Amino acid sequence: MPERTEGEEDYGHALAILRIVRGWTQGELGAAVGLDHSTVSGYERERLVPLALVRQMVAAMGFPAYLLDRSLAHLRWARMVRQLLLFPPADPAAGSIGVMAGAAGLAREELARNALAGVLEVPLVDSDDPATGAPKGSEPPSATPGGRRRGSRRAGGPRPASADLGRTLRILRLIAQLERPDLATAVGVSTEVIESYERDRTAPLAPTLQRLLDAMGACAEVYDRTVRFLAGARASLRWYSAAGAASERAQIESFAAAEADRAVDETRGWVGRLQAASRLFDSRRRAQALWERLAAFAPEVRETLVREGADFWESGFCELLCDRSRQAASDSADVALHLAQLAVLIAQRVPGSHGWRSRLEGYAQAHLANALRVAGRLPAAVEAFARAKELWQAGAADDPRLLNEARMLHLEASLLRCQRHLREAVALLDRALAIDRWGETPSLLIGKSKAIEELGDYHASIALLRQAAAQIDADRESLNLFLVHLNLATNLCHLGRHAEAKLALPAIRALAQRLDNQLGTLRVGWLAARIAAGLGRTAEAVASYERVRAGFEERDIAYDAALVTVELAALHSTQGRTADVRHLVRRSVPIFRRQGVHAEARRALEIFRLAVEADRSSVEFVRSVLAYLIRARNNPRLRYRHAT
Q1: pLDDT-derived band of residue 644, with 50, 70 and 90 as boundaries?
Q2: According to the model, what pLDDT value does residue 136 have?
Q3: How many CA atoms does the CB half-sphere of 634 hold within 13 Å?
Q4: What is the DSSP letter of 398?
Q5: For residues 32 and 53, is the Cβ–Cβ distance under 8 A?
Q6: How many whole angstroms separate alpha carbon 283 and alpha carbon 276?
Q7: pLDDT by residue (tens digit) across 143-180?
Q8: Is there a contact between 368 and 337 (Cβ–Cβ < 8 Å)?
């Protein structure tokens, strides 16, 4: 059996509508294509039907090919309206998308048809009005007797009889998916009476017609448009048999139908984006309260609550968790990872279109990749970011452009910087700076300055940091303010301006305490050690290095511990303290092995240890090891080449 495609079951009903328009029985349609009556009946009752066969049956009835798509569009639109009116959703916007899209499609179809017909002077009007099926000059059936507004749940009073009332009733019953006995019971008449109405043998009185429409959930607009569709389809049957598929009229109708499909897609996308934006703005107001509820539980419980609690499935809350993950990354990779994982779970569950969920999940996945990068799991971070970009791009059409695209570029640039693709990172940050609209610019400038620093242009890095400082709101962006001052002082040390850097230390320490950022406090201590070493205060520098090294080891940040160790070894070497270097290395190498420094860096550290043990560790050699470790931090494939 051929594989079913999404929505294909509706084609059987769309085919049945056209058969009703044509006035054929199922047996007559089957005979035209070499099928028996029961097979056609099965197809029309939503049994899987190959689309190619459906189109073959449409052609056999003498209809142009595009009319199947119009029949399908009318069927789906009418069912959406019926469902919305009979069972109003909790979110009215959700139900209105399909209705608005269908209305837009019909409007554009008529505009396109009439415009081209006018330009080419092609007659599109038969002896009967193709829009209504009624004789020219008659009252159009779109008028709504009884004074009720169009689109109300009830039909709004008896409908004017169309030229094909029986066929109209059959199509409306098919749309409602009711069998004749069910409709007869609902109206209080016999099945034979319903058949008599549908075969145009007798006409229902106005009150009976109204009961029929109410029982089928056919509001005024559905009734009117069904009349119009039926009349237009019958008109198409007449002109198509006379003019053929190559006629100008056929091409005009085909173009108009294609425009209708485009309008449906565009309107659905626009309304969907409007809905996503509305939900995002609304959920942002509740995001902090949701976080306070979730934060009261242990981390291992939160994932279960998020998976099972629909209250947490809000786009604004997902966005907040992403922000918190990024902030936490400056102090704890584990916390950042936990928050990003929660954000991904929520993004996969938020209401809305598939495209919007894809876009939001891509945003959350990028923050997950960032947390993995900070945790030192670079291959996993690269894989996660590739997934993030795929999801982000797949959902572009449904994005209301309220998520921070500059943030996405920034996170990718941070990953590139860790991979030592520094110039590519700078280029990406420049792109992000050009499109930033949501206050990301100070962070982008800080990120760019770090990449420039690692390229060795310390003056340019300082200029960017000062530019960032001028744009930081000190009351709301404490972390950015801390990073600016920390990195400024670091660049001053690179330039040998240690005295200037020392002047900034008290303010940097105060900012770290204000943030309550333990990792930040360690980095301030590392800066203080470098400043003391640069100012010749060896004892002070050694004490600071030892405290920082112990702090990194305690937090299992082995690579930074290794860097501090080699910096301290370099300081001892400059003082000729080879015994201190030997003692330091003997204590440290086992820790590096245990805590997961990558293999090539361990090889460099082992060569370093052997050189120290053999009293062959000059200051230049120690500095070469340090330079290698800095370059190879996130590049385990970078080979260490030592002088022999």
Answers
A1: very low
A2: 38
A3: 20
A4: G
A5: no
A6: 10
A7: 333 333 333 344 444 455 556 899 999 999 999 999 99
A8: yes
CB under 8 Å to 332, separation ≥6 — which residues? Answer: 519
Angle at 327 between CA 321 and CA 331, to 5 degrees: 125
Q: Which amino acid is at 49?
A: V
Averaged pLDDT for residues 221-246: 82
Residue 622 pLDDT > 90: no
Q: Torsion-angle region of residue 7: left (phi > 0), alpha (psi -120 to 50) or beta?
A: left
Count the neighbouring beta carbons within 10 Å of the beta carbon of residue 185: 15
Q: What is the pLDDT of residue 595?
A: 45
Distance CA 281, CA 291 (A): 16
Tell me how many helices (H) and strands (E) the chain has: 29, 0
Reading phi first (left if > 0) and then psi (alpha if -120 to 50, else beta), residue 211 is in: alpha
How many CA atoms within 13 Å lie on the side-chain side of 139? 8
How many other C-beta atoms lie within 10 A of the C-beta of residue 93? Answer: 15
Neighbours of 478 (CB within 10 A): 17
Residues 354, 360, 362, CA angle at the centre, nearest 5°? Answer: 100
Considering the entire predicted model, what is its pTM? 0.65
pLDDT score of 408 = 96
Distance CA 506, CA 503 (A): 7
User: Apex CA 424: angle with CA 418 and CA 429, to 5°?
Assistant: 90
The pair of structure tokens assigned to 135 is: 């004789």
| Residue count (the chain) | 644
State the pLDDT confidence band at 634, using cuts at 50, 70 and 90: low
Quick one: CA torsion of 181, 182, 188, 189, rounded to 10 degrees?
Answer: -20
Q: Which residues contact 7 (CB under 8 A, 6 or more apart)?
A: none
Alpha-carbon separation of residue 593 from 389, 553, 560, 638 (angstroms):
35, 12, 14, 18
Q: Give residues with Cβ within 8 angstroms of 218, minimum separation 6.
A: 82, 155, 172, 175, 176, 226
pLDDT at 126: 47
CA 320 – CA 439 distance, rounded (Å):
15
First to last CA, the chain: 71
Q: Can you tell me the distance from the alpha carbon of 279 to that of 93, in angstroms, rounded to the nearest whole number? A: 10
H/E stretch holding 468: helix 458-469
